[in-house]
Amino acid sequence: MRKARAGGDDEAVRQNGSSSRRRTDQHPGDGEDHDSSSGGVQDDDDDNDLGLRREIRSKYRDLINSVQQNREDMLSPSNNKLTEVLEEANKLFKDVRQAREAALDAQLLVVATDLGKEKASQLFSEGSAFDPTAFAEHLLSFMGLNRLEDEDDEPPNGCAGDGYLPKDAWHRLARRAECCFRTAPSFHYMMGSFYTEPPPPKQRIERQRKAPSKEAKRIMPTQLKKMEESHQEATEKEVERILGYLKSYYQDDPSPISYYEFVIDPNSFSRTVENIFHTSFLIRDGLARLKLDSDKLPCIEPVEEGEVEAAGSFSRKQCIVSISPKIWRELIDVFEIKETIIQPPETQSE
Amino acid sequence: MTQRKRLSNVQSSSQSKRQSNSFMTQEEDEDATFTQPSTSQVQRGLEKLTPAQVDQKTAEVVQYILVKDQKKIPVRRADLVKHVVKDYRTVYPEIIKRAMRTFEQVFGLKLVEIDSKNHMYVLVNNLDASTARPSPVERPSNPKMGLLFVILSVIFMKGGVVRENLIWNTLKKLRVDPGQRHEEFGDVRKVITDEFVRQRYLEYVRIPHTEPVEYEFRWGQRSDMEVSRAQILEFMGQLHEQDPRSWTQQYREAHSAATASSSQASSSNHR
Asked: What are the boundaries of the region Disordered (chain A) (predicted)?
């Protein structure tokens, strides 16, 4: 029915158009009797006509807008809004006299018929209807939507929505949907694309630089440790050893021993210096005594254990012994020192 | 037309430099520069080449297509000829035939021409997905496929064409808003109207007479090849807890398409 009406309207438009043109053409010219009357009518209605036409045009534009804006609403099969729009258009059309309004009417017709076609396609499925909203709801459940129970009172919004969609929601759907697709797996090289040359050498250089420094660090502590050992323990050992020599020599011959004969090693100047160094500890600790004999030459003798503390309370004199290789050689010549009393240690500390 | 014919005749005689230059100058319509050689031309071309040469060229074509397929954008014949086949264009049909065979036998893939007018190829999995067991290789799933699935399902269930607003509204209900950046998909509008369209999964066509401009969505040529309507209907049935047969029209369409082995020409599409 609607379609037939629309078709009829179409033809009416054409007729009206041509007839309106005829009227306007004849209007300026010599009017015939019937035309002059209609022309007269037009003269009077001219102002009304303009206003009326403007009104018609505005109403048509409103109709067109309402159809375009409220698309979804009009499409809904639950109402007859589209029919109402067309009926409105028919009413308006009765007053249409000029091409301009008719053009608007035609535009409305195009929009309305488009909508009509859409509505007809809704009747497409002879089976169950398909409702995208229900589909969306089911999908959300499938994707694992956590509907929070507190929000039962609030009406659920379409977009904002209640509930919390998990992070892997779309992955879940994609996995299920995979079986619908016959996608060719994308081809990628297993080892990835080749790298250009520069990066590896840089790494190597860094590693090489790091390695020596680490080893160097490691060396340092061990060296230090060794030195500390030689300083403390070795010295003590040496001092004790020398005390041993002094005592054993004194036992054999209980007269003070010539200091020079005791410390000098005719074979090595450095060992001589060491012996002087170690002997000075003995004297410092009060375990040995240096005194000048009748020739005013220094001689050394061990202190008896009982005497140690007593000797400590007496005055202690300090002296600085110096020796140079030249003096050392002179001493060797003068005293005719052939062999050393203090044997050198068996192992060297270095 | 006659001019093109003359060129192809020249081509068959010898592969001189003069020819390749004349091809280069016609760059506006690249496809027109390549006319499918006739079988006799192919025969003659093959005679001049060793089997090793043809095999090598076939392998190059296979590799090119495999890499191009990573982005799922169809391979244009013009590109293939220009960049890979080059001087071997006289034997192009033979090379393509061999490449197709290689894809099927070695990779289990099918090289299909989805657009016979513009000559574009895609790779489709030749293995039957419905009976396939879960893949032995754990492949990370692509969430975009989920999005695509939703759109294709709606279009299919609605008869093959939908106005874009229906898609946007449905997606909004799924918390995917084309106006906002989505944390999974990014620029949603771009993915759907640009990426999916370029990949030929969707068609995004302007509807005439609409003010403001509106578009409609249809299935793309790749979807026709790759996507099983029957499987979509199965999933629909599961989701809605209905028998897929209750959607009689869609069921009929899905299973007529299946019997025609998802070739493009077959089913009664609402085009």
From this structure: 1-54, 198-217
Which of A130, A139, A184 lies at the smallest CB-CB distance from B150? A139
CA dihedral A248, A250, A253, A258 (to 10 degrees): 120
**Range 181-210 of A in CB contact (< 8 A) with B:** 181-188
Neighbours of A295 (CB within 10 A): 8
Task: List CB contacts (< 8 A) between B121 and chain A.
Answer: none
Q: Is residue A292, in this structure, part of any structural domain at all?
A: yes
pTM summary value: 0.53
Q: Do B175 and A161 touch (CB under 8 A)?
A: yes
B142 neighbourhood in chain A, CB within 8 Å: 174
Question: To the nearest whole number, what is the mean pLDDT of chain A?
Answer: 73
| Percentage, residues of chain A above pLDDT 90 | 3
A155 and chain B: CB distance < 8 Å anywhere?
A: no
**For residue A346, is it within any domain?**
no
The segments of chain B whose pLDDT lies below 70 read: 1-33, 129-138, 257-271
Q: Which of residues 59-98 of A touch B (CB under 8 A)?
A: 68, 71-72
pLDDT of A303-341, one tens digit each? 876 655 554 555 667 778 888 899 999 989 988 888 888
* Listed residues A73, A98, A126: the one ending a domain: A126
Q: Which domains does chain B have, with CATH numbers?
A: 39-129 (1.10.10.1200), 143-257 (1.10.10.1210)
> Checking phi first, is residue A184 left (phi over 0); if not, alpha (psi -120 to 50) or beta?
beta
pLDDT in tens, A28-64: 444 444 444 444 445 455 656 788 888 888 989 998 8
User: In this structure, is residue A163 part of a structural domain?
Assistant: no
Q: What is the mean pLDDT of residues A189-204?
A: 64
In this complex, the residue of B123, B228, B248 whose CB is nearest that of residue A126 is B248
Residue among B142, B147, B163, B188 with most chain A CBs within 10 A, to mutate: B142
Q: Kindly state whether residue A96 falls inside one of the protein's structural domains.
A: yes
ipTM: 0.74
Overall number of domains in chain A: 2
Taking the CA of residue B51 and the nearest CA in chain A, the distance in Å comes to: 27
Nearest to B228 among A142, A180, A187 (CB): A180
Hey, is the C-beta of A138 within 8 angstroms of any chain B C-beta? yes
Closest-CA distance, A18 to chain B, in angstroms, reads 26
Report angle CA A57, A62, A66 to the nearest 5 degrees: 150
Do residues B209 and A110 touch, judged by C-beta distance below 8 A? yes
Domain extent, residue A99, equals 50-126
Nearest CA in chain B to A128: B247
Residue A50 phi/psi, 5° resolution? -60, -45
Any idea of the CA torsion for A152, A155, A158, A164, to the nearest 10 degrees?
A: -20
Check if the beta carbon of residue B130 is closer than 8 Å to that of residue A179: yes
- The label of the residue with tokens 């006739």 reads B38
